[in-house]
């Protein structure tokens, strides 16, 4: 951890997609900071799959860090299931003041090569899932007097994405929903912000889809540190932003990003380039 973690004792976060990768790292980092965690995702049994990790394993790892955790199986495409999961989390913890929309599907393909059911999946998991979960939490966030809605999605800098139009549309849609919410809640102490890594992050998805190699990757800890820094900001004062991890952490005083790298060197900003082809580091 390269940032000063806020004291999140007594607070509770509802995180989508916590079985592995970035979502799990965020859950564990928040638990280290004292935050209770609602661990959600589809995987409850990994014995018959090549994917390691379950929502229950993540919840147990959070509890090992001294907080309370609760696992809920959830398909974010199912509106009724989303509402039931939100109600269950509130029933268990009383207050849930942090929502992190992390669950995401990815497939990179040209329009000609991507069938309709795949664009449906990308749209339903990514933008619709974030929309449903955010909308389900709004009455509760208003009732408890504020909180944070954070979404793992990129800044909007492009109007076309050849070779990945469906994925880009769904991820940029997550950002669009989040920033629109910030404007709708402008007079209320609920922060809505999006965050995105500059470099590719080492996860199963980057390996499976062949997105670079180890020299291009940073560990998920740079994303979890970004989330901690966002949670350390006053929700009434910092809302409506789509931030890059490097830029936010640099503001927070991080100077050495090498500790996040999977290998020695300086990874190129390939994650930023996916949605911001003209991106240049300051």
Question: What report would you give on this structure?
Answer:
With 282 residues, this protein is of the alpha/beta class. It contains nine helices and nine strands. Strands 3-2-1-4-5-6-9 form a seven-stranded parallel sheet, with helices on both faces. The protein has a two-stranded parallel ribbon with strand order 7-8.
Write a brief caption for the model.
This protein is α/β, with parallel strands linked by helices and 282 residues long. It contains nine helices and nine strands.
Question: Can you give keywords for this protein?
Answer:
282 residues; Rossmann fold; 9 helices; alpha/beta
Report the CATH architecture.
3-Layer(aba) Sandwich
Count of helical segments? 9
How would you name the CATH homologous superfamily? NAD(P)-binding Rossmann-like Domain
Mean pLDDT over the residues: 95
The succession of helices and strands, N to C, reads EHEHEHEHEHEEHEHEHH
The number of distinct structural domains comes to: 1
Largest sheet: 7 strands, parallel
Rg (C-alpha, Å):
18 Å
Strand order of the largest sheet: 3-2-1-4-5-6-9
β-sheet strand percentage: 5-15%
Between the first and last Cα atoms, what is the distance in angstroms? 23 Å
Shape estimate: globular
**Helices and strands: which structural class?**
alpha/beta
What is the C-level CATH assignment?
Alpha Beta
Q: Which runs of at least 5 residues are low in confidence (pLDDT < 50)?
A: none
Helical content (DSSP H or I, runs of 4+): 40-55%
Question: CATH fold name, please?
Answer: Rossmann fold
Number of strands: 9
């Amino acid at each position: 951890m390269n940032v000063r973690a806020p004291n999140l004792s007594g607070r509770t976060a509802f995180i989508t997609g916590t079985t592995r990768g970035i979502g799990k790292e965020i859950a564990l980092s928040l638990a280290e900071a004292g935050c209770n965690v609602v661990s959600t995702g589809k995987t409850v049994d990994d014995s018959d799959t090549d994917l390691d990790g379950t929502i229950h394993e993540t919840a147990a790892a959070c509890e090992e860090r001294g907080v309370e955790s609760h696992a809920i199986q959830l398909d974010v495409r199912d509106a009724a299931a989303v509402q039931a999961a939100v109600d269950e989390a509130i029933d268990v913890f009383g207050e849930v003041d942090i929502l992190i929309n992390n669950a995401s599907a990815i497939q990179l393909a040209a329009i000609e090569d991507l069938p309709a059911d795949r664009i449906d999946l990308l749209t339903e998991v990514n933008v619709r899932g974030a929309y449903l979960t955010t909308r389900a939490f709004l009455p509760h966030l208003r009732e408890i007097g504020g909180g944070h809605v954070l979404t793992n999605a990129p800044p909007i800098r492009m109007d076309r994405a050849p070779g990945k139009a469906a994925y880009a549309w769904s991820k940029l849609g997550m950002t669009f929903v989040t920033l629109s919410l910030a404007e709708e809640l402008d007079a209320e102490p609920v922060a809505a912000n999006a965050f995105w890594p500059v470099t590719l992050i080492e996860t199963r998805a980057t390996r499976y889809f062949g997105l670079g190699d180890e020299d291009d990757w940073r560990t998920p800890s740079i994303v979890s540190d970004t989330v901690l820094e966002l949670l350390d900001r006053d929700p009434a004062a910092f809302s409506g932003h789509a931030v890059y991890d490097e830029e936010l952490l640099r503001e927070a005083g991080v100077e050495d990003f090498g500790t996040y790298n999977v290998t020695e060197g300086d990874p190129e900003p390939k994650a930023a380039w996916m949605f911001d082809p003209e991106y240049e580091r300051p």
